[in-house]
Amino acid sequence: MSRPLQLPPPTTTLGLYRQLLRESSYLPSLARPHVDHQIKDRFRRYQKGHVDNDRLRKKLKDAHHELRVLRAANAGDMNRMQKILLKAFGRTGSRRRDLFSNLVRRPPPATTEELEAQVSGTRAWSFDRDPDWLDGWDTEALLAFAKVQAKTSLPSSPRGPLLPKHAVSPDKDIPKENVYGNPFPEKVARTKVRKLYASLADRVLPPLPESEWDRLALVAEGKFEEAGWYVPSRRSAAKSLAGDADAQAGEWKWQLYATRPVGLVDVAQNKKQRLLSGALDENTPHGNTQPVDRHIYTAKFWKRLVKSIWLLTAKGTRDPEKGGYRVTWARAPFQAPTATTSGMEFFESLPVDASLSNKTKGPKKRGRKSAR
Question: Where is this region: Disordered (predicted)?
Answer without folding.
Answer: 154-180
